[in-house]
Amino acid sequence: MESTAAADDGVRLWADRTGRGEPLVCCHGGPGLWDTFGGVADLLAADLAVYRWDQRGCGRSQRTGPYSTARTLADLDAVRRHFGLERMALLGHSWGARLALQYAIEHPERVSALVYVSGTGIDQDAAWHAAYARARDERLGPHLERWRALKHKDRTGAEDREFSVLQWSADFADPARAMEHAERMAEPWFGVNFACNAALIAEDRTLWGTPELRAACAELDVPTLIIDGAEDIRPRWSVDSLEHALPRVTRITLKSAAHLPWTETPEAFRTTITEFLTNHP
Q1: CA dihedral of residues 78, 82, 88, 93 (deg, nearest 10)
Q2: Distance between the two ends of the chain, CA-based, in angstroms?
Q3: % of residues, the chain, pLDDT over 90
């Protein structure tokens, strides 16, 4: 059921509900991308009501700023209100895992459980980014030269898509199917909002790795499931900082999966989430 949620400043946000049952609201990665959880909704629809949305400026939502963490958190709450949810399980993927964590810290009474998928912990990005870049370049293999050429030029819209697909191909464990999976992520193609990406990543440098964030995580009384793909090019040790800070945490690493584990190990992903949420209603 597709609909439009209105942010409190009037910006229109694309939203969707699939399935029946207890609510699970999903926060996509990026920033500057769009919802990639269609496969997740299909996997979980028999057990849960899955709510998806495009963050402001992204995908099918209105391409309007301002772009900030506070604004995006308020937009997430607008989606919650739009669907009439008093409490919800919250799933975040990649950068969306940061968003979901911050929302749970600010509004723990509205979050029944947190599912943190393929995130990078609570330290500064500088702590893990060099290891990530090395792994990315290795995973890109024969596509690395073309990816670098695109990265350092003014790109057309078609080149933006090519650049993104090449980069996303490194997010899958199986090289034989990596380009196929990455191409599927780009259909339909909505165009990356690089201004949104730059603004939110710059803000993250002031928010992440602070004693205040670590203390807030230590006080978070929300059951949390951390799901990692063992083959993610983002080093999994980066998530240790979050795991060690949270008081109520379960961590599962899925073999043969990388950054989008629901694509490469769908049944294990489905079982892990449904069992966790069943035990933490």
Answers
A1: -60
A2: 24
A3: 99
| Cβ neighbours for 113, distance < 8 A, ≥ 6 positions apart | 89, 90, 222, 223, 224, 225, 276, 277, 280
Q: Tokens 């090449």 sit at which residue?
A: 166
CB 56 within 8 A of CB 7: yes
Length of the chain, in residues? 281
Please name the CATH architecture into which domain 2-127+193-279 falls. 3-Layer(aba) Sandwich (3.40)
- Domain positions in the chain: 2-127+193-279
Q: Residue 281 pLDDT > 80, yes or no?
A: no
Tokens (6 digits) for 224: 């949390």
| CA angle (161, 162, 167) in 5-degree steps | 100
Backbone angles phi, psi at 232, to 5 degrees: -60, 135
The number of beta carbons lying within 10 Å of the beta carbon of residue 63 is 16
Tens-place pLDDT, residues 2-58: 899 999 999 999 999 999 999 999 999 999 999 999 999 999 999 999 999 999 999
Does 154 have pLDDT greater than 80?
Answer: yes
